[in-house]
């Protein structure tokens, strides 16, 4: 098998908030085409970890390499790096003062310097992808949670990032809407988009991901192939954690 | 001479109508211009006061920002904490005796109203910015916007919309409170009314008319701003775009009709 193309390499990532140590040194390689699901109990640092990758949180220690170069120095400025590493939030965070279409074009125009027409065309491509192209004139408050999250995914994709980070993308949705968002995510995974997903959807992690990482208490508790991990967890902590999800 | 209350009112309106109109004009000019300039001052001060301190910034920038913020804080506290009537006296007579500047009462009036409103608006704008969900800012940063872009495209449009009711408040307060400028003999509505009342000693009748004029001005201002707010919000409804003009016409299949709105 051909060597996989290494996109991001997280090395010894540490993060403390005051006295409180959240991440105690986490290392992870993210290659092109990987779909990495990060699972683990609440408060174990999953969200902090993913937020450190695009520097929404400043890591206390450790390094993040983008194609072998320190991510902060790989581009002219940090914002350019952030366009390569898209982010989808638990609370969607669509810009309330903009329409669906504007949400998806503003980054392309302001940050990437694309023209109106090009940005619009590109945005439409991804809005069609998440099946929201009919809603381009709607404002976020007029949409349901699932629709908002699908637009948020389109907004992130419109910048054509190399990696998409998702921070519990379905946790703020009611069960009915979880399905529509997971379907979009599953489709993206099939198309080969590189994703790092913090999730509590164990069935999704098992069926879609290429690798599962369980964080526990600020360190990687166990990681591996999803089939292996869910059927034969090695550590006691993983067994205990998985036992709480009955419908696996 | 008229006998009844309304007789007097009609008589005085007929005789001094122009004085009322001119006085109301001056009052409106002071209030509108003062509020507008005050808003600009408030906006600038409010934005500077919400500049986040990044621990990675250079020490020079940190100290610089801190000093500016301290000065702006002092400005807000002083001008919020003293009555406008006193500020008018200090500015008008102070300029004359200390710096030998003989400014017109009107100019002093504009100055005092603007600076005073600016102090209040600065706090209002700060509150407006702070009230925006931090997630909005995070999302903007995550798609690669810098601080200026985040503020201009995402935070300020929302913050300013939230500040609108308070802007209405300030305009109405200014329409009424410019009356204190009579102490430096600005001929606004209150000053004009006092002069008119003095001629026949009909204080009640004259100030009844003054009252009505003030109310007409404030009520109109309030309604106009409400309309402006509505306009800012845009239409409450939206149209679904079932035909996608960007789609390749060869393979276009119309999307299923979806019920409009919620």
What does this molecule look like?
The complex is a heterodimer of chains A (248) and B (262). By secondary structure, chain A is of the alpha/beta class. Chain A has a domain at 6-93 and 161-242: P-loop containing nucleotide triphosphate hydrolases (Rossmann fold, 3-Layer(aba) Sandwich), CATH 3.40.50.300. Chain A has helices at 46-53, 78-84, 100-110, 116-129, 145-158, 175-190, 202-208, 226-231, 236-243; strands spanning 6-17, 20-31, 35-39, 61-66, 69-70, 85-88, 163-167, 194-198, 211-216, 219-224. A six-stranded mixed β-sheet of chain A has the order 6-7-8-3-9-10, with helices on both faces. In chain A, strands 2-1-4-5 form a four-stranded antiparallel β-sheet, with helices on one face. With 262 residues, chain B is mostly helical. Chain B has a single domain (17-237), classed as MetI-like (MetI-like fold, Orthogonal Bundle), CATH 1.10.3720.10. Chain B is 73% helix and 0% strand. Chain B has helices at residues 5-49, 59-80, 84-99, 105-130, 134-142, 147-177, 189-200, 203-233. The longest helix of chain B is centred in the N-terminal third of the chain and has 45 residues, at 5-49. The radius of gyration of chain B is 26 Å and the shape is flat. The N and C termini of chain B lie far apart (66 Å). Classes of the chains: A alpha/beta (248), B mainly alpha (262). Chains A and B meet through helix 2, helix 3, helix 4 and helix 5 of A and helix 5 and helix 6 of B.
């Amino acid at each position: 098998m051909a060597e996989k193309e290494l996109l991001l390499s997280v090395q010894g990532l540490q993060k403390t908030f005051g006295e409180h140590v959240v991440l105690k040194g986490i290392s992870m390689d993210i290659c092109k085409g990987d779909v990495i699901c990060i699972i683990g109990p609440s408060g174990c640092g999953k969200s902090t970890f993913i937020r450190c990758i695009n520097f929404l949180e400043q890591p206390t220690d450790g390094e993040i390499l983008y194609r072998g170069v320190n991510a902060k120095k790989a581009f002219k400025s940090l914002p350019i790096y952030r366009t390569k590493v898209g982010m989808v939030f638990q609370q969607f965070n669509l810009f309330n003062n903009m329409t669906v279409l504007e949400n998806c074009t503003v980054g392309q125009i302001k940050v990437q310097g694309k023209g109106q027409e090009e940005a619009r065309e590109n945005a439409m491509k991804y809005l069609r992808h998440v099946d929201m192209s009919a809603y381009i004139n709607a404002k976020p408050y007029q949409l349901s949670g699932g629709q908002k999250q699908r637009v948020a995914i389109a907004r992130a994709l419109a910048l054509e990032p190399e990696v998409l980070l998702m921070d519990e993308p379905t946790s703020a949705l009611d069960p009915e809407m979880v399905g529509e968002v997971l379907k979009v995510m599953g489709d993206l995974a099939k198309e080969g988009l590189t994703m790092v997903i913090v999730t509590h959807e164990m069935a999704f992690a098992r069926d879609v991901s290429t690798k599962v990482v369980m964080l526990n208490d600020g360190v990687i508790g166990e990681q591996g192939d999803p089939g292996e991990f869910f059927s034969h967890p090695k550590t006691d902590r993983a067994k205990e954690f998985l036992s709480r999800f009955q419908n696996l | 001479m008229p006998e009844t209350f309304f007789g007097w009112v009609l008589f005085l309106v007929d005789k001094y109508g122009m004085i009322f109109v001119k006085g109301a004009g001056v009052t409106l000019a002071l209030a509108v211009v003062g509020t507008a300039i005050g808003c600009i001052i408030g906006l600038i001060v409010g934005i500077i006061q919400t500049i986040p301190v990044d621990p990675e910034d250079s020490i020079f920038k940190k100290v610089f920002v801190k000093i500016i913020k301290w000065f702006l804080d002092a400005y807000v506290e002083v001008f919020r904490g003293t009555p406008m009537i006193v500020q008018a006296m200090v500015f008008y007579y102070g300029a004359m005796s200390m710096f030998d500047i003989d400014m017109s009462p009107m100019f002093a009036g504009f100055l005092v109203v603007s600076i005073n409103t600016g102090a209040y608006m600065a706090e209002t704008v700060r509150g407006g910015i702070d009230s925006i969900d931090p997630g909005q800012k995070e999302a903007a940063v995550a798609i690669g916007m810098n601080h200026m872009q985040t503020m201009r495209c995402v935070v300020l449009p929302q913050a300013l919309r939230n500040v609108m009711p308070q802007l209405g408040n300030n305009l109405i307060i200014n329409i009424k409170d410019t009356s204190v400028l009579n102490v430096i003999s600005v001929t606004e509505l209150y000053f004009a009314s006092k002069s008119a009342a003095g001629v026949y000693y009909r204080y009640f009748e004259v100030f009844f008319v003054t009252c009505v004029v003030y109310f007409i001005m404030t009520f109109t201002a309030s309604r106009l701003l409400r309309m402006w707010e509505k306009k800012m919000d845009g239409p409450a409804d939206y149209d679904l775009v079932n035909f996608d003009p960007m789609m390749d016409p060869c393979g276009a299949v119309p999307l299923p009709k979806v019920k409009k709105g919620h």
